[in-house]
Amino acid sequence: MDQIKIRGGKSLHGTIHIGGAKNAALPLMAACLLSDQPLNLSNLPHLADIATMTNLLTELGVNVSMNGAAPAGYAGRVFTLDAKKTTDIIAPYELVRKMRASVLVLGPLLTRQGRARVSLPGGCAIGTRPVDLHLKALEQMGAVIELKEGYIDAKAENGLKGCHVIFPMVTVGGTENILMAATLAQGETVIGNAAREPEIGDLAKCLVAMGAKIEGIGTDTLKVQGVKKMNQADHAVLPDRIETGTYAVAAAITGGEILLKGARLDLIDAVVDVLSRVGVEFEDTDTGLRVSRTNGNLKGVDLMTEPYPGFPTDMQAQFMALMTVADGASMITETIFENRFMHVPELHRMGADINVQGRSAIVRGNQKLSGAPVMATDLRASVSMVLAGLAAEGETLINRVYHLDRGYERLEEKLSACGADIERVQA
Ligand code: EPZ
Fold first, then answer.
1. Which of 162, 300, 371, 425 would be 396's cystine partner, CB 3.0–4.6 Å?
2. Nearest residue (CA) to ligand 1, atom 25
3. In terms of DSSP H, where are the helices of 283-401?
4. Rounded to whole angstroms, what are the CA distances from 187 to 107, 161, 305?
């Protein structure tokens, strides 16, 4: 298994291209199942999760082809996804266990084919992550759902019926599954307490381009008038706000300055607000987002993760790495997932002073981090090891980097181009 070796202590200077958002690309790819016309997606990042979704769609009979140059201004790949001849309705355990987002094929399959058999995604390192809210909402729309042998067996022989769904808690995947299911349902569906993450707005924009009738995009109430069929569409995936925030922290934690090309400042308001209070400077220029440390030192700031537009949970581990070297203390509270502090014991190994009490962690800053062999446990925890390694004295060796490859494209290339001493080694 690959490892990543970092010799820390160098400040980063240079340019990093921000890719298309993983958490937009995955539901967008699933959306192709709604139409018998091709969907052209551009600015797709080159990530393990995209390959897994491609495999799943191919198993379902979708013809996925990779095209050449992306439209001007986008660096990602262009895929054409044609679900004209969908031959299957089963999302097998082997694929779903590798990537929980596979459950996003449930709504599209059910609303267009009237059937779906999707493996229940197991838990993962950060929490049990049930999909009960997805299923309850689909049952409200008339689906008959049975859970047997670890699979969701869903039927809607006469199609789904529009209704008023109100989510008791904000769920990104639940909102995406129901939004896609509603596009071909009979009548009107209103989704209350809908998640407002930008990736959902991007999905809604693509669905409208395919012929869906959606109102309230960007708000917590989405109103969908079902249509008979969907058409062909072209859509460019929006830039990855979590990748943007991650490399902004890389600039801050090493005391450098990085130009993030293709980043959109409007997608990371809460991250900019918090990092600015820490002492990080953001300058939106016509060539990209310039990020640097202001006057040299970083200040400890308290943080609570929240659904969008609050501070994203997917940036919590990266922020914690930054707080280990800031002046003073920081209290970090994780409100979205029940077990998203797996990075703490690894940061301890590097000399960080962090005390976890339930859903909160107190970080006492001003620590001189020292390099150490550490273990990646989930996608964002593993990138917080990279960030700490960039700031630490000595060598950090990160194991199980397959977690990283799920969500960060060419991470070591992007960082070494800015002066980091980082390489991928075969274990
Ligand atoms: C999406 O996961 C993202 N993944 C996650 O990013 C992100 O952390 C999360 O949203 C929150 O923003 C993708 O978009 C592919 P949720 P999702 O449904 O949809 C509970 C990353 O690092 N819940 O909003 O699975 C759930 O347990 C990943 O890129 C239920 O209880 O998240 C959690 O506590 C990690 N029942 C909370 O809601 C349900 O039916 C939020 O989950 C659904 C969710």
1. 371
2. 173
3. 316-323, 343-349, 379-391
4. 16, 6, 36
Give the pLDDT confidence of 244-297 residue by residue, as tens digits.
999 999 999 999 999 999 999 999 999 999 999 999 999 999 888 999 996 778
Separation of alpha carbons 371 and 110, rounded Å:
50
Which residue has its alpha carbon closest to ligand 1 atom 16? 171
List, for residues 29-60, the tens digit of each pLDDT value.
999 999 999 999 999 999 999 999 999 999 99
Looking at the CA of residue 378, tell me the nearest atom of ligand 1.
22
**Nearest to 251, CA basis, from 90, 6, 1, 10:** 10
Q: Is 206 a catalytic residue?
A: no
Instruction: Convert the pLDDT of each residue in 167-181 to its tens digit.
Output: 999 999 999 999 999
Give me the pLDDT at residue 296, please: 75
Ligand 1 centre distance from Cα of residue 298 (Å): 31
Protein residue with least CA distance to atom 27, ligand 1: 129
- Collapse the DSSP code of 272 into the 3-class scheme (helix H, G, I; strand E, B; otherwise coil) and give the result: helix
Give the distance (Å) from ligand 1 centre to CA of residue 232: 29
285, two tokens: 């220029």
CB 382 within 8 A of CB 400: yes
Alpha helices (H) in 97-140, listed in sequence order: 106-113, 132-140
CA-CA distances (angstroms) from residue 202 to 184, 286, 295? 18, 23, 37
Instruction: Read off the amino acid at residue 375.
Output: M
pLDDT of residue 127: 84
Q: Whose CA is nearest to atom 38 of ligand 1?
A: 171
Query: How close is the Cα of 5 to the center of ligand 1, in Å?
Result: 30
pTM of the predicted model over 0.85: yes
